[in-house]
Write a structure and sequence with these properties.
Number of helices: 13
Order of helices and strands: HHEEHHHHHHHHHHEH
Subcellular location: Mitochondrion outer membrane
Largest sheet: 3 strands, antiparallel
Strand order of the largest sheet: 1-2-3
Helix content: 55-70%
Radius of gyration: 21 Å
Family: Belongs to the mitochondrial carrier (TC 2.A.29) family.
Main location: mitochondrion
Distance between the termini: 35 Å
Strand content: under 5%
Structural class: mainly alpha
Pfam family, one: Mito_carr
Keywords: Membrane, Mitochondrion, Mitochondrion outer membrane, Repeat, Transmembrane, Transmembrane helix, Transport
Number of strands: 3
Number of domains: 1
CATH topology: Mitochondrial carrier fold
Length: about 325
């Protein structure tokens, strides 16, 4: 789903970049028109996202079993995402699989309605915001066009994250409450009150730095790669239309560990048992979280939802 969130903005920019005379009102109309399909996909896929968040937090209630890798080597394999969802359903019922969905829906709505308003409030007035360069053409790519479009994507994505991230934290903590069965986070209103009681306003932005760092790195690297791919490998407009979405998918897998860090920091140190020992170490900063996950080879938790091989943390092996 993280890939989907980034693809949502880059694909929108590509659609917009085909029309040179367009303003922010038209951009808002494009985003609003796409909202129903986004809400539908989010709702359908939420149980998988729910299980993925719990996996990113390191919660593994089902034991691994002996198996082999694709190359025949012996390995311990963890239950796949569908078995994980079945476990959640057995515990909380069908509707329990949709814990945290309400906050995610509100985040999508807020992003579609308020992104441009945040850009205006920040006093950003660049020509490419209302007039994005057209890079989906048969002509020779111009590096300045890619720089302008990349800058535009970064601004819009940053504004969108600022608007929607508080709802993301609410959603993650509601899902994380499954681990300790805390009732304070069983409702949307209860989760908001609990977050504010624990950490004040800043609690709604825990983990936003690695989130932005990962997303903006993905946008920047994708832009650089797209320029060179379109310049030397892809020569036609029809094929160039797919360059950025495909490259975004690839680069987002590289920055995925920062998604895990952001998810962990969204709950680290809060009143949930999921964010405290023994379920999670106390992290003084997101950098400490990053180092710990990297040292224990847990920085890719949730990147694969079907073939999930068990990797014992260093502390467990010592």
């Amino acid at each position: 789903m993280q890939n989907f969130q980034i693809l949502r903005y880059t694909s929108l920019s590509f659609l917009i970049s085909e029309e040179l005379d367009i303003d922010m009102d038209e951009i808002e109309k494009e985003k609003i028109a796409a909202l129903p399909s986004q809400l539908l996909v989010t709702t359908i896929c939420h149980p998988m996202e729910y299980a993925k968040v719990l996996i990113q937090l390191g919660y593994e209630p089902l034991p691994p079993r002996r198996s082999t890798t694709l190359f025949g080597r012996p390995a311990m394999i963890l239950p796949n995402v569908f078995q994980y969802i079945k476990f959640i359903k057995t515990s909380d019922g069908f509707f329990g699989c949709y814990r945290g969905l309400s906050a995610r829906v509100l985040g999508l709505i807020a992003s579609s309605q308020l992104t441009s308003k945040v850009i205006y409030a920040m006093g950003i007035d660049l020509p490419e915001i209302n007039d994005p360069p057209n890079i989906v053409t048969d002509e020779e790519p111009k590096v300045e066009d890619y720089i302008r479009l990349g800058r535009r994507d970064m601004i819009m994505h940053t504004a969108s994250v600022i608007v929607s991230y508080p709802f993301h934290v609410v959603s993650v903590r509601m899902m994380a409450s499954f681990i300790g069965k805390e009732q304070d986070y069983s409702t949307l209103f209860g989760a908001i009150v609990s977050i504010y009681r624990d950490d004040g306003i800043r609690g709604f932005f825990h983990g936003i730095i690695p989130k932005l760092l990962g997303d903006l790195t993905c946008v920047a690297v994708t832009g650089v790669l797209a320029y060179y791919v379109n310049k030397y490998l892809v020569k036609t407009k029809d094929l160039r239309y797919y360059t950025v979405p495909l490259l975004t998918f690839v680069t987002s897998t590289i920055t995925y560990p920062l998604v895990v860090v952001s998810t962990c920091m969204a709950v680290a140190g809060c009143s949930l048992s999921a964010g405290n020992p023994p379920n999670m170490p106390k992290y003084p900063s997101w950098q400490a979280c990053w180092r710990d996950l990297l040292r224990n080879k847990q920085h890719k938790r949730g990147s694969s939802l079907i073939f999930r091989y068990y990797i014992a943390p260093i502390a467990a092996m010592q």
